[in-house]
Amino acid sequence: MSPVALPSQHAAVLHGAKDLRLEERTLWPPQQGHAQVAVVATGLCGSDLHYYTHGRNGDFVVQQPLVLGHEAAGIVTAVGPGVKHLVPGQRVAIEAGIMCNNCSYCHKGRYNLCKNMRFCSSAKTFPHSDGTLQDRMNHPAHVLHPLPDNCTFEQAALAEPLSVLLHASRRADLTPERPASVLVFGVGAIGLLACALARSYGAHKVVAIDINQARLDFAKENGFAQEVHCLPVADKAKTTDDQLRRAKETVSAALGKFDQPDGFDVVFECTGAEPCIQMSVHAAVTGGKVMLVGMGSRNVMLPLSAAATREVDVLGSFRYANTYPTALALLAAGKLPNIEKIISHRFPLADAAQAFELMARGRDDDGRMVMKVMVGGQ
């Protein structure tokens, strides 16, 4: 028997900090329960940038060549044995987290906390699971979600970061049935999605705070936030007490400007920066909620007594579970106006390294701000 020549495909493979190589790889047929997807669009995330820039993301160090990317959509090109709900030619969003479906968290529907989770493009587990910055990939069919007809591939790639906010909103009891006032710290892509989702849910006031006036202008001009406030640049506080006092004073001034002196029902903290986390406790109304969405400072000094005595719930939120169908439906229905404007730059897969370098700079050669960068497959 002569060996069968398997087709090949290209992948952008990270070998170490700033060492991204376009490689040719063998394309294997999908195994039982898997489907093969031609990746059309991948949105780049802050965690991808950390891996590219430093060869690590927090404690997770790249120990073997790794394909980045986990915000993606594409077209099914083949299905493995036992796959019933997908056919070649079907357009799908790729949910990058592969849960075990066997542990207590999976059984409770909280599979984002699954102890055996394998997340594509993360170095948390070894061997690592490759992400979506490749022409084609094989992926478990049960985490491939068919796209509504009027949902584009780029919109579907945004379903991943939108899922982060859908999950956080559920944790905060923020729903269309319970409109609220919402304050968002940080208007990068995640913060803008938080604003957009809150507005689609009928929040009666949505405002944003950042240190970057240009981003705030973008948020206001495109209808993501009704009002915005740019934090003053200040010297680093010398003592913890000084830092906590300053956080309370700074946010009190912002609340006054927003004509919301008692605070907001829900605060989405999307920066991960210690001063903003401290401010968020004071920014929430008595009995309100603070959602910790941003990843940043590892250990944070918090005004806990101010949270405890005012019954402000400070809630963690990690990735998402059972969000994709809702996210895709919201995107397809046009419930998030101007959402595509978050996508600021586009690159082909062969130029993935340039895409990361642009993200790291924050502005392109024409001075345009970098928001969400999309990398296209073939």
Low-confidence stretches: none
Strand content: 25-35%
Instruction: Compute the separation of the termini in Å.
Output: 33 Å
Mean pLDDT: 95
How many helices? The count is 10
**Annotation, overall tally of beta strands:** 20
Bulk shape = globular
Q: What assembly state would you assign to the polypeptide chains in this entry? A: single chain
Q: Roughly what percent helix?
A: 25-40%
Major sheet, described briefly?
7 strands, mixed
Integer-rounded radius of gyration: 21 Å
Q: Order of helices and strands, N to C?
A: EEEHEEEEEEHEEEHEHEHEHEHEHEHEHE
Class from helix and strand fractions: alpha/beta
Report on this model:
The chain starts with 7 loop residues before the first strand and ends with a strand. Helix 8 links the parallel strand 17 (284-292) and strand 18. The protein is of the alpha/beta class and 378 residues long. The mean pLDDT is 95. Strands 3, 7, 8, 11, 12, 19 and 20 form a seven-stranded mixed sheet that branches. A six-stranded parallel sheet has the order 15-14-13-16-17-18, with helices on both faces. It contains ten helices and 20 strands. Helix 3 (153-171) packs across helix 4 (189-200), helix 3 crosses helix 9 and helix 6 (240-257) crosses helix 7 (274-283). The chain has helices spanning 46-54, 104-107, 153-171, 189-200, 213-221, 240-257, 274-283, 304-309, 324-332, 352-361, and strands at 8-16, 19-26, 34-43, 56-57, 60-61, 66-67, 71-79, 91-94, 97-98, 118-119, 136-140, 144-146, 181-185, 205-210, 227-230, 264-269, 284-292, 313-316, 343-348, 372-376. The chain is 28% helix and 27% strand. The longest helix is centred in the middle third of the chain and has 19 residues, at 153-171. Belongs to the zinc-containing alcohol dehydrogenase family. This is GroES-like protein.
